[in-house]
């Protein structure tokens, strides 16, 4: 009998399942079918089909249920602090592999769940976290470590509001060599930064060491903006300087001081945006494809990355708009307004009339006194 013709009926499958639960061996189960049918030739399946059905269907379902219960128990014991990682991609289908990892009692990594994701948007992350929480009995972890991803952070805040979310320091420190290769002192900067991160045992000590580190390696261009711009505007400029860490600058071509660069900005783990930036070292001009300076009046992180790549220590005054300067002087504040001038003139006139009236009253009183003194004699 060919394999495609061997198919146990629903009654046979149900009997196999019941006998398996009762502890009856597959051989005894098959012999009962043979006896009931009047011989093995009357059956449309063989003994191997009974064993295969038990292995593939009955025991597999039981194993899946046991595995699910085991994962729930594992999450209950070791799911207080977990790590969610999406840095692995499948080559064939270009899908992101996300894994929920905990640490067991032997300090070993234990898998608490995994998923394949086609898109890394906020809706996909929300769906994944909700499904994982449902499988784990709805118990959210106390803390979760992830890579630097704003969309993932928003999804965690929406699905697990009580969970403390932190970025994985290992992923952050791993990016430092690639981000600092454009700087002349990148080895020294990397060493000092690692010292601040790993040797600051309290928050106060870290804040103090980090501020000292920023002062030591402060960008001259950033200091130029800080000296001129207002505090509110400098915060927006500083956000662009911070965004440089997600940008990688590549020189495309250069001739006679005119260079074209491609700046690749990492938006998420698998999303990268490319921008074309031109730099003219002779005219001290830089222009980015995103047109942030043309629309908002501040240099973008892509242009700042190119300026750092070119070792530019000071930007041209054309990129420091006077409208954002804290030293701006409005002309109308130095001119006396007509209304105020008229009010001042009226006050002076009233004061002069008051003084004259007081003198007039003193003269009148004096004349009256003199008149009363000479009246009887008249």
From TrEMBL:
Keywords: Metal-binding, Zinc, Zinc-finger. It comes from Arachis hypogaea. The keyword Metal-binding applies. PROSITE patterns: ZF_SWIM. GO terms for molecular function: zinc ion binding. This is SWIM-type domain-containing protein. InterPro entries: MULE_transposase_dom (IPR018289), Znf_PMZ (IPR006564), Znf_SWIM (IPR007527). It holds the Pfam family MULE. Residues 275-311 form the SWIM-type domain. The keyword Disulfide bond does not apply.
């Amino acid at each position: 009998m060919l394999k495609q013709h061997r198919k146990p009926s629903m009654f046979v499958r149900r009997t196999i399942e019941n006998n398996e639960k009762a502890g009856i061996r597959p051989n005894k189960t098959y012999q009962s079918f043979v006896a009931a049918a009047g011989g093995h030739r009357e059956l449309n399946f063989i003994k191997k089909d009974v064993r295969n059905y038990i292995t593939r269907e009955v025991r597999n379902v039981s194993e899946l249920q046991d595995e699910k219960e085991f994962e729930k128990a594992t999450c209950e014991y070791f799911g207080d602090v977990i790590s969610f990682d999406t840095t692995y991609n499948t080559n064939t289908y270009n899908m992101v592999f996300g894994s929920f990892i905990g640490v067991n009692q032997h300090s070993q990594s234990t898998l608490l769940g995994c998923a394949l994701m086609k898109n890394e948007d906020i809706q996909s992350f929300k769906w994944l976290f909700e499904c994982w929480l449902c499988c784990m009995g709805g118990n959210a972890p106390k803390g979760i470590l992830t890579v630097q991803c704003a969309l993932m952070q928003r999804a965690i805040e929406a699905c697990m509001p009580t969970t403390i979310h932190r970025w994985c320091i290992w992923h952050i420190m791993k990016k430092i060599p690639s981000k600092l290769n454009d700087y002349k002192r990148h080895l020294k900067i990397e060493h000092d930064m690692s010292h601040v991160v790993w040797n600051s045992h309290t928050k106060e000590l870290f804040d103090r060491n980090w501020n000292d580190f920023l002062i030591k390696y402060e960008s001259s261009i950033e200091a130029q903006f800080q000296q001129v711009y207002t505090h509110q505007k400098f915060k927006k400029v500083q956000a662009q300087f911070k965004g440089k860490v997600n940008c990688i600058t590549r020189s495309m071509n250069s001739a006679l001081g005119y260079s074209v660069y491609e700046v690749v900005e990492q938006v998420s783990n698998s999303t990268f945006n490319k921008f074309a930036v031109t730099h003219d070292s002779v005219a001290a001009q830089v222009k980015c494809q995103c047109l942030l300076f043309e629309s908002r009046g501040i240099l973008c992180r892509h242009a700042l990355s190119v300026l750092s790549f070119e070792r530019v220590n000071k930007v041209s005054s054309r990129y420091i708009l006077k409208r954002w300067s804290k030293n701006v002087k409005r002309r109308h504040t130095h001119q006396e307004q007509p209304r105020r001038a008229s009010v001042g003139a009226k006050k002076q006139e009233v004061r002069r009339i008051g003084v004259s009236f007081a003198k007039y009253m003193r003269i009148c009183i004096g004349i009256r006194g003199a008149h009363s003194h000479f009246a009887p004699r008249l």
